[in-house]
Amino acid sequence: MRRKFASFILPIILFFMIGNMAMGESFTYIDILVNPDNSITAVINARSDYDFISLMLPYDAEVVDFSVDGTPSLSACKEERKVDGTLINCSVENGSFITLKFTSSDAVMMSGDELLFLMRLIFYQNYDVCKIKLTLPENYIIASNEHAEPLIIPSPYQLYTAGNNQIVLWNVKCGENALVELFVAGKRASKFSVPLYVAIPIAAIALIVISFFFLRKRKHPDIFDKFLVRDEKMIIDLLKNKKEMKQKEIVRATGFSKAKVSRLLRNLEMRGVVVREKVGNACIVKLKEEEEE
Predict the structure, then answer these.
(1) What sign has the CA pseudo-torsion 156, 193, 268, 286?
(2) pTM for this prediction
């Protein structure tokens, strides 16, 4: 009788013990989808030990949905545009489960068959677990440089495919005031490219080797700084010829809109390729190499 009672009650005790442990763990899971129109849709699911959620999202981020324990609470969030991005502050009860959904067109650039994803996030609270998932558009794969180094930063803990989509998973540290920078260069898969189920394991092994012997020795690895999409290359070629230009001159020379040039330069500046300097009412743009010399 006692053995039957023990076999019955023990699983229940373990269930509640595990449940309490899970309830006490703070976490944030971010699911990012790159859309065909160059925008992203991201969903953040989190549990915090604070009575507020605060983080810095991409510059043009717009919160479209926010819920606390399943109850819509969009009015509890405030957005504030900053130089580094959009600051989000949402009031919650300590230990609540929150879901925040936002969109942005500032994190992705597509040019021809090339894709560049660059996102900067700042977390203002500590989380025990922080995982990020990025889903590339259909038929896009991770690009490599001339040394066959996959163009992903930081190193992912998993790469896999779901249907025609390649997916990147990261484990990152989300400590207080932690800056997380994500960089992925992709390209449209050709009809005669290596099958993804073959390419992904090879890329994963190469990435581990590169991370150990190469990336940790550099503060700004070349695969982050030097990969350029076509529109960025046009700006860099202009700067190579003139050394420095006013931002409005770049607008005239490229034929791009002011907003597009501003977005391209902001991404190039984040990656350390160019520097911008305010001189009076003008914004002067230089290549970083020229500035350092």
Answers:
(1) positive
(2) 0.69
